[in-house]
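A further point concerns the way the authors explain their paired sequence and structure data. Since the whole study asks how a given chain folds, the encoding of that fold should be made plain. A single example would do more here than another paragraph of explanation. An entry of this sort, consisting of the sequence and the corresponding C-alpha coordinates, reads as follows:

_____
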Amino acid sequence: MELTQPKKEKTLYFEVLRIMAVFAVIFIHTGDFGYSLFAQRPFGSLDFWIDLVLSLCSRFCVAAFFAISGALLLPKNEPLKAVWKRVARMVVVLLVVSLLYWFEYLAQNGGKFSFITFFHKSYYDQTRYHLWFVYSYIAFLITLPFLRALAQNLETKYFYYLIGLQVLFVGIIPVLDYKTTIYEFPLNPEAIPSWMFAQIFFYPLTGYFLHNRLSIEQAKKWVLPLWAANIVSLAAAAYMTWFQRRMIGFANDDPTPNFHFVFISVNCITLFVTARVLFRNDKVPSWLKTVLFQVGESVFGIYLIHMYFLRQPWVEKIINTILATGCDRMVAVNIWVLCILLISLVPAWILKKIPVIRNFL
Protein backbone atom coordinates (compact mmCIF):
# COMPACT_ATOMS: atom_id res chain seq x y z
CA MET A 1 0.00 0.00 0.00
CA GLU A 2 1.67 3.20 -1.20
CA LEU A 3 0.89 6.70 -0.04
CA THR A 4 -0.01 9.01 -2.92
CA GLN A 5 2.68 11.57 -3.76
CA PRO A 6 2.58 14.45 -6.28
CA LYS A 7 3.96 13.16 -9.57
CA LYS A 8 6.43 15.95 -10.19
CA GLU A 9 7.20 17.30 -6.74
CA LYS A 10 9.80 15.56 -4.63
CA THR A 11 9.18 14.62 -1.02
CA LEU A 12 10.63 17.43 1.06
CA TYR A 13 11.44 15.55 4.23
CA PHE A 14 13.68 13.16 2.31
CA GLU A 15 15.80 16.13 1.28
CA VAL A 16 15.97 17.34 4.89
CA LEU A 17 17.08 13.90 6.03
CA ARG A 18 19.68 13.72 3.26
CA ILE A 19 21.14 17.08 4.25
CA MET A 20 21.25 16.08 7.92
CA ALA A 21 22.82 12.75 6.99
CA VAL A 22 25.58 14.19 4.79
CA PHE A 23 26.38 16.73 7.53
CA ALA A 24 26.73 13.78 9.93
CA VAL A 25 28.93 11.91 7.42
CA ILE A 26 31.34 14.84 7.19
CA PHE A 27 31.32 15.15 10.98
CA ILE A 28 32.24 11.47 11.35
CA HIS A 29 35.10 11.94 8.90
CA THR A 30 36.59 14.70 11.03
CA GLY A 31 37.91 11.91 13.24
CA ASP A 32 39.97 13.19 16.15
CA PHE A 33 39.00 16.78 15.31
CA GLY A 34 35.35 16.17 16.22
CA TYR A 35 33.87 12.70 15.99
CA SER A 36 36.32 11.16 18.47
CA LEU A 37 36.90 14.36 20.39
CA PHE A 38 35.15 12.97 23.47
CA ALA A 39 38.06 10.53 23.91
CA GLN A 40 40.40 13.51 24.35
CA ARG A 41 38.25 15.22 26.98
CA PRO A 42 38.73 14.64 30.71
CA PHE A 43 37.08 11.27 31.26
CA GLY A 44 33.56 11.70 32.66
CA SER A 45 33.58 15.51 32.38
CA LEU A 46 30.64 17.50 31.04
CA ASP A 47 32.52 18.09 27.78
CA PHE A 48 33.13 14.35 27.53
CA TRP A 49 29.41 13.57 27.80
CA ILE A 50 28.30 16.33 25.41
CA ASP A 51 30.83 15.36 22.74
CA LEU A 52 30.04 11.69 23.21
CA VAL A 53 26.31 12.19 22.67
CA LEU A 54 26.96 14.26 19.53
CA SER A 55 29.22 11.49 18.27
CA LEU A 56 26.53 8.88 18.97
CA CYS A 57 23.86 10.96 17.21
CA SER A 58 25.92 11.22 14.02
CA ARG A 59 25.84 7.47 13.37
CA PHE A 60 22.30 7.59 11.93
CA CYS A 61 23.55 8.87 8.57
CA VAL A 62 24.14 5.68 6.60
CA ALA A 63 20.98 4.13 8.03
CA ALA A 64 19.02 7.18 6.85
CA PHE A 65 20.42 6.94 3.31
CA PHE A 66 19.35 3.31 3.03
CA ALA A 67 15.97 4.03 4.62
CA ILE A 68 15.25 6.79 2.09
CA SER A 69 16.30 4.51 -0.76
CA GLY A 70 13.98 1.81 0.54
CA ALA A 71 11.09 4.25 0.82
CA LEU A 72 11.57 5.37 -2.78
CA LEU A 73 12.67 2.21 -4.59
CA LEU A 74 10.87 -0.67 -2.91
CA PRO A 75 7.35 0.41 -3.97
CA LYS A 76 8.41 0.35 -7.64
CA ASN A 77 7.88 -2.60 -9.95
CA GLU A 78 10.71 -2.66 -12.47
CA PRO A 79 11.97 -5.39 -14.80
CA LEU A 80 15.30 -6.95 -13.94
CA LYS A 81 16.87 -5.02 -16.82
CA ALA A 82 16.00 -1.72 -15.13
CA VAL A 83 17.51 -2.93 -11.87
CA TRP A 84 20.79 -3.73 -13.58
CA LYS A 85 20.80 -0.35 -15.29
CA ARG A 86 20.77 1.15 -11.79
CA VAL A 87 23.62 -1.14 -10.79
CA ALA A 88 25.60 -0.24 -13.91
CA ARG A 89 25.19 3.50 -13.32
CA MET A 90 26.44 3.13 -9.75
CA VAL A 91 29.40 1.01 -10.88
CA VAL A 92 30.35 3.75 -13.36
CA VAL A 93 30.17 6.34 -10.58
CA LEU A 94 32.32 4.15 -8.34
CA LEU A 95 34.97 3.58 -11.01
CA VAL A 96 35.20 7.24 -12.05
CA VAL A 97 35.36 8.59 -8.51
CA SER A 98 37.78 5.85 -7.44
CA LEU A 99 40.03 6.73 -10.37
CA LEU A 100 40.02 10.42 -9.49
CA TYR A 101 40.94 9.71 -5.88
CA TRP A 102 43.62 7.27 -7.06
CA PHE A 103 45.20 9.96 -9.22
CA GLU A 104 45.12 12.28 -6.22
CA TYR A 105 46.88 9.63 -4.13
CA LEU A 106 49.54 9.10 -6.79
CA ALA A 107 50.12 12.85 -7.10
CA GLN A 108 50.61 13.18 -3.36
CA ASN A 109 52.95 10.20 -3.14
CA GLY A 110 54.86 10.53 -6.40
CA GLY A 111 53.62 7.22 -7.80
CA LYS A 112 53.02 6.15 -11.39
CA PHE A 113 49.69 4.93 -12.65
CA SER A 114 49.24 1.20 -13.14
CA PHE A 115 45.86 -0.09 -14.28
CA ILE A 116 46.43 -3.45 -12.60
CA THR A 117 47.29 -1.80 -9.28
CA PHE A 118 44.25 0.47 -9.55
CA PHE A 119 42.01 -2.48 -10.43
CA HIS A 120 43.28 -4.54 -7.50
CA LYS A 121 42.84 -1.62 -5.09
CA SER A 122 39.30 -0.92 -6.33
CA TYR A 123 38.36 -4.59 -6.39
CA TYR A 124 39.34 -5.73 -2.91
CA ASP A 125 39.50 -2.40 -1.09
CA GLN A 126 38.68 1.23 -2.01
CA THR A 127 40.83 4.15 -3.12
CA ARG A 128 39.30 6.40 -0.45
CA TYR A 129 37.77 4.87 2.65
CA HIS A 130 34.41 6.66 2.47
CA LEU A 131 33.65 4.91 -0.83
CA TRP A 132 32.77 1.72 1.07
CA PHE A 133 29.21 3.06 1.08
CA VAL A 134 29.02 2.98 -2.71
CA TYR A 135 30.06 -0.68 -2.72
CA SER A 136 27.38 -1.38 -0.13
CA TYR A 137 24.80 0.57 -2.12
CA ILE A 138 25.58 -1.51 -5.21
CA ALA A 139 24.93 -4.63 -3.13
CA PHE A 140 21.59 -3.11 -2.06
CA LEU A 141 20.63 -2.39 -5.68
CA ILE A 142 21.41 -5.97 -6.68
CA THR A 143 18.98 -7.25 -4.03
CA LEU A 144 16.12 -4.92 -5.10
CA PRO A 145 13.91 -7.61 -6.73
CA PHE A 146 13.91 -9.68 -3.53
CA LEU A 147 13.45 -6.71 -1.20
CA ARG A 148 10.59 -5.37 -3.31
CA ALA A 149 8.75 -8.68 -3.27
CA LEU A 150 9.21 -8.94 0.48
CA ALA A 151 8.28 -5.33 1.28
CA GLN A 152 5.18 -5.22 -0.89
CA ASN A 153 3.80 -8.52 0.41
CA LEU A 154 4.82 -8.40 4.05
CA GLU A 155 2.00 -7.76 6.52
CA THR A 156 2.42 -4.54 8.48
CA LYS A 157 2.69 -6.35 11.80
CA TYR A 158 5.86 -8.05 10.62
CA PHE A 159 7.61 -4.70 10.08
CA TYR A 160 7.03 -4.02 13.77
CA TYR A 161 8.36 -7.50 14.48
CA LEU A 162 11.50 -6.84 12.41
CA ILE A 163 12.21 -3.54 14.17
CA GLY A 164 11.63 -5.13 17.58
CA LEU A 165 14.03 -7.98 16.81
CA GLN A 166 16.70 -5.55 15.60
CA VAL A 167 16.53 -3.44 18.76
CA LEU A 168 16.62 -6.60 20.88
CA PHE A 169 19.51 -8.42 19.20
CA VAL A 170 21.63 -5.44 18.10
CA GLY A 171 20.95 -3.16 21.07
CA ILE A 172 19.54 -4.63 24.24
CA ILE A 173 21.23 -8.04 24.34
CA PRO A 174 24.79 -6.73 23.63
CA VAL A 175 24.31 -4.08 26.34
CA LEU A 176 23.13 -6.65 28.88
CA ASP A 177 25.86 -9.12 27.89
CA TYR A 178 28.60 -6.57 28.41
CA LYS A 179 27.16 -5.00 31.55
CA THR A 180 26.69 -8.32 33.30
CA THR A 181 29.73 -10.33 32.13
CA ILE A 182 32.01 -7.90 30.22
CA TYR A 183 31.35 -10.15 27.19
CA GLU A 184 32.77 -13.15 29.02
CA PHE A 185 29.53 -14.99 28.28
CA PRO A 186 27.92 -13.33 25.23
CA LEU A 187 24.99 -14.84 23.42
CA ASN A 188 26.04 -17.58 20.99
CA PRO A 189 26.24 -15.83 17.58
CA GLU A 190 24.54 -18.82 15.94
CA ALA A 191 21.38 -17.85 17.86
CA ILE A 192 21.32 -14.38 16.26
CA PRO A 193 19.51 -13.97 12.90
CA SER A 194 22.20 -11.54 11.74
CA TRP A 195 21.11 -11.51 8.09
CA MET A 196 17.94 -9.68 9.11
CA PHE A 197 19.93 -6.81 10.59
CA ALA A 198 22.32 -6.17 7.69
CA GLN A 199 21.99 -2.49 6.83
CA ILE A 200 21.17 -3.17 3.16
CA PHE A 201 18.24 -5.31 4.34
CA PHE A 202 16.92 -3.80 7.55
CA TYR A 203 17.01 -0.08 6.78
CA PRO A 204 15.49 -0.17 3.29
CA LEU A 205 12.59 -2.23 4.65
CA THR A 206 12.23 0.12 7.62
CA GLY A 207 12.21 3.17 5.34
CA TYR A 208 9.59 1.54 3.12
CA PHE A 209 7.44 0.87 6.16
CA LEU A 210 7.78 4.35 7.66
CA HIS A 211 6.96 6.11 4.39
CA ASN A 212 4.50 3.77 2.69
CA ARG A 213 2.69 1.92 5.46
CA LEU A 214 2.65 4.40 8.34
CA SER A 215 -0.02 7.07 7.93
CA ILE A 216 0.77 10.69 8.76
CA GLU A 217 -1.76 10.50 11.61
CA GLN A 218 0.12 7.56 13.10
CA ALA A 219 3.43 9.31 12.54
CA LYS A 220 2.26 12.32 14.54
CA LYS A 221 1.33 10.06 17.44
CA TRP A 222 4.70 8.36 17.28
CA VAL A 223 6.90 11.45 17.58
CA LEU A 224 6.91 11.92 21.37
CA PRO A 225 7.17 8.21 22.28
CA LEU A 226 9.98 7.80 19.76
CA TRP A 227 11.90 10.73 21.20
CA ALA A 228 11.49 9.27 24.69
CA ALA A 229 12.85 5.94 23.44
CA ASN A 230 15.64 7.73 21.55
CA ILE A 231 16.77 9.66 24.62
CA VAL A 232 16.80 6.46 26.68
CA SER A 233 18.76 4.58 24.00
CA LEU A 234 21.28 7.41 23.56
CA ALA A 235 21.72 7.56 27.32
CA ALA A 236 22.26 3.80 27.43
CA ALA A 237 24.81 3.91 24.59
CA ALA A 238 26.63 6.82 26.24
CA TYR A 239 26.68 5.07 29.61
CA MET A 240 27.94 1.81 28.08
CA THR A 241 30.68 3.71 26.23
CA TRP A 242 31.74 5.24 29.53
CA PHE A 243 31.50 1.87 31.29
CA GLN A 244 33.44 0.03 28.61
CA ARG A 245 36.22 2.58 28.53
CA ARG A 246 36.38 2.63 32.31
CA MET A 247 37.09 -1.10 32.04
CA ILE A 248 39.56 -1.14 29.14
CA GLY A 249 40.50 2.50 28.41
CA PHE A 250 40.67 4.16 25.01
CA ALA A 251 42.72 2.24 22.48
CA ASN A 252 44.72 4.45 20.13
CA ASP A 253 43.52 2.51 17.11
CA ASP A 254 39.89 2.32 18.23
CA PRO A 255 38.73 5.51 19.97
CA THR A 256 35.09 4.76 19.15
CA PRO A 257 33.65 1.83 21.13
CA ASN A 258 31.21 -0.77 19.84
CA PHE A 259 28.32 0.85 21.69
CA HIS A 260 28.24 3.67 19.15
CA PHE A 261 26.33 1.30 16.91
CA VAL A 262 23.85 -0.51 19.12
CA PHE A 263 20.87 1.85 18.94
CA ILE A 264 21.34 3.49 15.54
CA SER A 265 17.96 2.16 14.43
CA VAL A 266 16.09 3.98 17.21
CA ASN A 267 17.78 7.28 16.39
CA CYS A 268 17.24 6.83 12.64
CA ILE A 269 13.55 5.95 12.99
CA THR A 270 12.99 8.88 15.37
CA LEU A 271 14.58 11.39 13.00
CA PHE A 272 12.82 9.87 9.99
CA VAL A 273 9.35 10.11 11.55
CA THR A 274 10.03 13.57 13.02
CA ALA A 275 11.18 14.92 9.65
CA ARG A 276 8.13 13.44 7.98
CA VAL A 277 5.82 15.21 10.42
CA LEU A 278 7.61 18.58 10.45
CA PHE A 279 8.67 18.94 6.81
CA ARG A 280 5.56 18.18 4.82
CA ASN A 281 5.51 19.74 1.36
CA ASP A 282 2.41 21.82 2.06
CA LYS A 283 3.65 23.12 5.42
CA VAL A 284 6.97 24.73 4.40
CA PRO A 285 7.40 28.17 2.74
CA SER A 286 8.13 27.93 -0.99
CA TRP A 287 11.51 29.71 -0.74
CA LEU A 288 12.72 27.27 1.91
CA LYS A 289 11.48 24.32 -0.11
CA THR A 290 13.46 25.57 -3.11
CA VAL A 291 16.66 25.83 -1.06
CA LEU A 292 16.19 22.41 0.54
CA PHE A 293 15.44 20.75 -2.79
CA GLN A 294 18.50 22.32 -4.44
CA VAL A 295 20.83 21.23 -1.63
CA GLY A 296 19.14 17.86 -1.19
CA GLU A 297 19.52 16.86 -4.82
CA SER A 298 23.27 17.52 -4.55
CA VAL A 299 23.85 15.38 -1.46
CA PHE A 300 25.25 12.35 -3.27
CA GLY A 301 27.73 14.61 -5.05
CA ILE A 302 28.67 16.21 -1.73
CA TYR A 303 29.22 12.76 -0.26
CA LEU A 304 31.55 11.77 -3.09
CA ILE A 305 33.47 15.05 -3.20
CA HIS A 306 33.83 16.14 0.43
CA MET A 307 36.79 13.88 1.21
CA TYR A 308 38.88 15.80 -1.31
CA PHE A 309 38.27 19.09 0.46
CA LEU A 310 38.40 17.72 4.00
CA ARG A 311 42.17 17.33 4.03
CA GLN A 312 43.10 20.32 1.88
CA PRO A 313 45.50 22.61 3.82
CA TRP A 314 43.42 25.72 3.05
CA VAL A 315 40.33 23.99 4.40
CA GLU A 316 42.13 22.93 7.57
CA LYS A 317 43.08 26.58 8.08
CA ILE A 318 39.37 27.34 8.48
CA ILE A 319 39.06 25.41 11.73
CA ASN A 320 42.34 26.81 13.03
CA THR A 321 41.04 30.30 12.36
CA ILE A 322 37.79 29.54 14.19
CA LEU A 323 39.66 28.02 17.14
CA ALA A 324 41.90 31.09 17.33
CA THR A 325 38.83 33.11 18.29
CA GLY A 326 38.53 31.08 21.50
CA CYS A 327 35.51 29.14 20.25
CA ASP A 328 34.78 25.80 21.94
CA ARG A 329 36.37 23.00 19.91
CA MET A 330 33.15 21.06 19.27
CA VAL A 331 31.32 24.22 18.21
CA ALA A 332 34.24 25.06 15.93
CA VAL A 333 34.18 21.58 14.40
CA ASN A 334 30.48 21.84 13.59
CA ILE A 335 31.02 25.25 11.94
CA TRP A 336 33.91 23.70 10.02
CA VAL A 337 31.74 20.78 8.90
CA LEU A 338 29.13 23.24 7.63
CA CYS A 339 31.85 25.07 5.70
CA ILE A 340 33.05 21.82 4.11
CA LEU A 341 29.46 20.94 3.19
CA LEU A 342 28.96 24.32 1.50
CA ILE A 343 32.33 24.16 -0.26
CA SER A 344 31.51 20.68 -1.58
CA LEU A 345 28.01 21.81 -2.54
CA VAL A 346 29.31 24.18 -5.23
CA PRO A 347 30.93 21.60 -7.54
CA ALA A 348 28.25 19.00 -6.68
CA TRP A 349 25.47 21.43 -7.64
CA ILE A 350 27.24 22.38 -10.88
CA LEU A 351 27.79 18.73 -11.85
CA LYS A 352 24.14 18.02 -11.11
CA LYS A 353 23.16 20.60 -13.76
CA ILE A 354 25.21 18.96 -16.53
CA PRO A 355 22.79 16.78 -18.58
CA VAL A 356 24.88 13.59 -18.89
CA ILE A 357 26.46 13.69 -15.45
CA ARG A 358 23.25 14.41 -13.54
CA ASN A 359 21.89 10.99 -14.51
CA PHE A 360 24.67 9.44 -12.42
CA LEU A 361 24.36 11.75 -9.42
About this structure: The chain has 16 helices and no strands. The two ends are 29 Å apart (CA to CA). Confidence is low (pLDDT under 50) at residues 1-7.
